[in-house]
Amino acid sequence: MALAARVGVDVARTQVTRALGRDALLVERFDRTGVIGQRRMMVSALTMLGMDSMQFRYATYHDLADVIRARFINPDATLRELFARIVFNICVGNTDDHARNHAAFWDGEHLSLTPAYDLCPQVRSGGTATQGMAISPDGFRRSQLAGTVRAHATCHLTRDQAQDIVDATLATIRAEWVEVADQVGLTKVERAWMWGRQILNDYIFHDE
After folding, report:
1. Which residues of the chain have pLDDT under 50?
2. Which end of the chain is more exposed for a tag (fewer CB within 10 A), N or C?
């Protein structure tokens, strides 16, 4: 989450603290209005796509993009943000990006994307990986950057715009990883174990 913020993804604010001798992650509630007891209405991407909890495996990014174009305020900016989140998820090994981990605020008339949440690098048993939702209409879902760039039209981007997002994300992760690891208290062993496995695994640079 801290690394996503450095990359420029709109993300919920977090803080790592200690409680009863154990690490605890605090995540700021972004569904609060500031008025005691009052919340902002939210819907998951699963709901936006008209699916129930048993159908989540059929949700796709390109279908979500269609909803964004049709029903969201500032659709182009929202689609760019969505693409940046896809790229970031691939870069950090978060393959748990299913439709319940995307949501929007609903004000009774319009939808707007909530901050990103539940960004969690997943343990990998091998080199290959796939994202929780297909990225392009042809079913592409591999955790690979080249194929994701080719799916640029899904998020109403040019190929150059998509590549610029990938390049900026990679550069920021490489430049900020050590400082973020220090910030959140990762040990040298933990950060060494994550780097090249979850974080910038070599598979994301393949093009199959």
Report:
1. none
2. C
